[in-house]
Write a sequence for this structure.
């Protein structure tokens, strides 16, 4: 399985996603500054992955041989961790997983520092490090459950009568590269494929950052899943094509508000509108750590604005005969100089357009009142 994040005893490495799919290279993340920049510059991206890398960057910093904070008092260690977490959450604002992880781990560390009899400063740091490391394994397990739950739902509710295999469309990258492994929406695709229930997967290019053509396509080829890449503007034509017969669109999420409104990669909203028009099921797949009950609706979600250069230029190696070995990444301008640019990284899909929210504990659909009751996901009731 592709591994975007490697961690062992204070040594964190991430697969540099700016170089993919042309060069596979791991870069060390030794400090919270390294982690912050890797997230901001999108060397690592995807809601679960940025939360995990942020926390593990702090774990690595704490374990650095020259870091003397471990010799300090429990409260000093707590304050150090708390300040670093405040800094890390400023790297990217939309995905709630990062601030959710920071809040939970801060609370755990704060409680540990207050214990009687008092622990050593080192033991307070260990509480943080163990929790950060646990995120890697927990996220992988959650994703495998999300994949299974989503695949079963699609096979039951999106397949036509008697249809054994379905076609699905996905957007952005929500796979092993966006998580600790397997993925969320792409985990659903993987699960369908592993159950022999997938006829074909389609992935969008996902302009302007091309997470679809660079990363999702890379994962689909890697796993030998039958798949086709389209540009974002081809989605309507794809859904209208009855021979291709797309049964469902499944996407990830950066933040799901309490009413089910979902922030995800720019272009998601357009796909949801298309799905409604064509009678295609539209699913959001995300761990419960992406659900933010404190945010009432999509209106309250901050949408990250990215640099104009991501729209006015594209990056990649120079095209040419294969095997030239020339893989240095170049930037090519593609827009008229002087044009204004709007580059929101995410959009909000209203809950009314979402048929189900796939989590590790099941798939939640709207209630008889036509509303999502996502708080029910946190007491693990009977879900489909
Ligand atoms: O800007 P990105 O690449 O971090 O955006 C990623 C997405 O929008 C994903 O769909 C989302 O984070 C879920 S990843 C499992």
């Amino acid at each position: 399985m592709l591994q975007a994040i490697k961690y062992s005893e204070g040594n964190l490495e991430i697969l540099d996603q700016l170089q993919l799919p042309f060069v596979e290279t791991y870069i060390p993340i030794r400090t919270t500054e390294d982690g912050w920049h890797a997230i901001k510059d999108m060397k690592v991206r995807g809601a679960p992955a940025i939360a995990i890398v942020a926390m593990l960057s702090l774990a690595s910093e704490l374990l650095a041989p020259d870091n003397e904070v471990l010799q300090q008092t429990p409260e000093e260690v707590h304050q150090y961790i708390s300040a670093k977490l405040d800094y890390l959450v400023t790297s990217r604002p939309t995905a709630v997983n990062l601030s959710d992880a920071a809040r939970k781990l801060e609370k755990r560390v704060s409680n540990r520092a207050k214990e009687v009899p008092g622990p050593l400063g080192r033991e307070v740091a260990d509480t943080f490090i163990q929790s950060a490391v646990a995120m890697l394994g927990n996220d992988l397990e959650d994703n495998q459950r999300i994949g299974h739950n989503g695949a079963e739902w699609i096979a039951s509710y999106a397949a036509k009568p008697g249809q054994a295999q379905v076609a699905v469309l996905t957007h952005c990258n929500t796979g092993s590269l966006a998580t600790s492994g397997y993925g969320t929406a792409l985990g659903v695709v993987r699960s369908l494929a592993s159950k022999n229930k997938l006829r074909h997967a389609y992935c969008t290019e996902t302009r302007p950052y091309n997470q679809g053509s660079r990363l999702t396509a890379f994962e689909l080829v890697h796993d030998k899943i039958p798949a086709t890449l389209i540009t974002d503007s081809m989605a309507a034509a794809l859904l209208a094509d009855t021979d291709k017969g797309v049964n469902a669109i499944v996407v990830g999420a950066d933040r799901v508000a309490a009413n089910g409104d979902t922030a995800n990669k720019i272009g998601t909203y357009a796909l949801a509108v298309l799905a409604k028009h064509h009678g295609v099921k539209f699913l959001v797949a995300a761990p419960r750590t992406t659900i933010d009950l404190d945010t009432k609706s999509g209106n309250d979600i901050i949408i990250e604005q990215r640099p104009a250069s991501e729209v006015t230029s594209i990056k990649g190696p120079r095209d040419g005969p294969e095997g030239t070995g020339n893989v240095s990444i170049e930037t090519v301008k593609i827009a008229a100089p002087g044009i204004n640019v709007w580059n929101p990284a995410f959009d909000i899909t209203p809950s009314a357009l979402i048929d189900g929210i796939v989590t590790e504990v099941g798939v939640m659909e709207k209630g008889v009142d036509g509303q999502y009751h996502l708080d029910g996901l946190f007491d693990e009731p009977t879900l489909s």
About this structure: The chain has two domains: 5-138, 147-379.
